[in-house]
Amino acid sequence: MEKKLAFLGPHGTFSEEAARALTAGQRFQHLPYPSIIDVISAVAEGKVDYGVVPIENTIEGTVNSALDWLIHEVDLPILAELALPISQHLLIARREEPLQLSSIQRILSHPHAIAQCHNFIREHLPQATIEYTNSTAKAAQIVSEHPEEAWAAIGTRLNPEIYPLSFAAQEIQDYSNNYTRFLLIGTEPLDMPLCPKEKTTILVTMPEDFPGALYQVLAAFAWRKINLSKIESRPTKKGLGSYYFVIDIEQKMDDVLLPGAFAEIEALGCQVRQLGTYPSYLYKTT
């Protein structure tokens, strides 16, 4: 039976590209959803089997809506991650007379895509107003449906293959080393290709009024020589100054080292919740 996988739509988003890369060679029905929260909720409610959501970008950092929903609203394990290279392009509707950059009045795109292209916008499109959309593909779709308007979208290289659009400018992101991490989430394990890199992500809740607690948490990993690739605080939403710590560990769950570290952390009065242990893939362009 063909399984269902949700991604941030409509068709032509980086999320769809990541979804297809993560499930290459497997039979899936790929279904677009209008927002990141809708994707996660569809998996949690059993409407689809799996979902793919962006979680972090090289330039803009964490996608807070995705991380917070996974922490506060659902209990879905991370099954895999993919680092996808991101290139942004300025797209305009196809017309007899191409729209000049100086004539563009409005730029539409996802907030992260806009943020990744600030320098280009300031230099070449200072006259344009900015309108945020739920995805880059949604922006492309809107612009393509209004060819009479002096609008442009920031989107992917795939968008002109799906919508009647043309490139007004290509590779407009501020930094060339631009990657986005996407997470594959789901309630059931999925057979994934072998990967030399594995990660484990945990959520640590600190006890209140415990000076030096974070230092001691990190020490539990340090003396065991366990490498951490990321530490991030997110509000518990229970009061000012109350935070969770999300920690990415650069190894898969084992029977000795990580359980020992977690037990030591819990002995401090902290709570440890595993968000997943999973392969970490890097997308390679051909």
Automatic annotation (TrEMBL):
Q: Which GO terms fall under molecular function for this chain's record?
A: prephenate dehydratase activity
Q: Where is the ACT domain?
A: 202-279
Pathway where this protein functions = Amino-acid biosynthesis; L-phenylalanine biosynthesis; phenylpyruvate from prephenate: step 1/1
- Write down the EC number: 4.2.1.51
- Where would I find the Prephenate dehydratase domain in this sequence? 4-187
InterPro entries linked to this entry: ACT-like_dom_sf, ACT_dom, Chor_mutase/pphenate_deHydtase, Preph_deHydtase, Preph_deHydtase_CS
Which keywords has UniProt assigned to this entry? Amino-acid biosynthesis, Aromatic amino acid biosynthesis, Lyase, Phenylalanine biosynthesis
Which EC class is this protein assigned? lyase
What does the entry give for GO biological process? L-phenylalanine biosynthetic process
Organism superkingdom: Bacteria
Example GO CC term: the record gives: cytoplasm
Reactions catalysed, semicolon-separated, are:
prephenate + H(+) = 3-phenylpyruvate + CO2 + H2O
The protein's site described by Essential for prephenate dehydratase activity is found at T180
**What name is this protein filed under?**
Prephenate dehydratase
Originating species: Brevibacillus composti
Q: What would be the name of the gene that encodes this protein?
A: pheA
